[in-house]
Amino acid sequence: MGISTDRIDGLQWVLSVKWIGIWASTAVLIAGIVSSPVGGLEREMQLVLAVFGFTLILWLTESVPYTVSSTAAIVLLYALDLVDTFGEAAGGFASELVFFLFLLLLLGGAISKVGLAEIAAGRMLSTRSTPRSTVKSLGAHLMALSLLMPSAVARAVTFIPIVNEMTDAYGLDRDGPFRNASFLVLGHVNPIGSMMLMTGGGMAIITSQLINDSVRTVTWVEWAIYMIPPMVLLFWASTLATLVLYPIDGERTVDSEDLSDGMAAAITEDREPLTRNQTVVGLVMLGAVVAWIIGSFIGVPTIVPAVAAVAVLALPGVAVVDRELVADVSWGILFLIGAMFSILEVMEETGTLELVVDSLITLIPFDAMSTLFVVGTLLGLAVFIRVWFSTASAAIVVTLPIIMEFGAVLGVNQVYLALSVLIVVGSTTFFPFNTTSVLLSFDKGPLELREVFGFGAVMMLLGAVTVVLSWHLYWPLVV
Fold it and tell me: What is the pLDDT of residue 226?
């Protein structure tokens, strides 16, 4: 007797990744609650680890939306008496980082909403270059645009149709090396630009605030001095790596007559003037950048220019920031950050984080290692954790506090260590789901899974080289 189709579908449904995440997370939570403390853990320590394991599995498998799993974590901290009040359980949401990232997401959304990103992209590309020089031009324009447009995803969305248009204009195969290299730049290399500035994207924002909270204050200008040269080096090394992997025609040219009317108008002198909203958003963003620079010298918190910029764009008569834009914010990431901070606070208060770090130090012979091997081991751990997350920002939230705790115990320079973790996590993408821009380029472009994985390994190695050069040659020169 055969098995019915309904039963097969039902079995596949129960065994899907999301349902496995539900069963596994529930099992971890129940085991932590009903079993006696093990391995020298106190009761509170085991409970908070159970909550962390429960939540982490849900985050990794995305069995339920981040907002739901994060809220469940907060409720569990309170329900299991790990904190005295619900306000303490939700204390992580009071972090400046949550509100700062929220404001920057609104500003990034405003830039995309009024079409500034598309205009900037269209005006940057040239129609009289070769396919090989166009890939370099694409990299240069993505890096330049990252200074004004924080979201790597928005930049990728903007340039994908332009790359397709240029492929057709050159008369190239859509499965050929030009488009492959271009989509690797859009997916893998593009996010590197967001790390140049403290306010450049979620990864940089989270890292800078964690440094400010646990080590020392790093100003907007100081961050730029620390990170722009290494990120420019990594960005261009990665871009040139695509040209090595995919030999591209350096002779063929294209004329604007080969392009569609819309594309030709966008990248030639036949341009329409900026609209009122585009002008306003551009001036507001320029003002915010100037305020961040000046504020670095006079002690103005970085969140102040951000809230002022959003307030201006939300004024009646402007209304670029409206209910629709607020609703489109990535609330799941904000909830994840708030919940992770809440869990970390309880882990610190109960001594759980210190015990975990001490236990791992006992197991791993850090004392017998040189500083180079200690840092390499910690960064390897960061990469391992990062592979399981669907966004680098989420991986940074979970990974960086733990790695920095190791650094504090082992006497490693925590600022260097935090920046190194950011670089290796931000440059490592083995699977399409690891980074949204890679997932987008994988879905819209000609890349295969082996190409995504292979170039992810190349970028991880380039990121490691960048860390070594920065740690030993450049960062010691930064005062």
Answer: 94
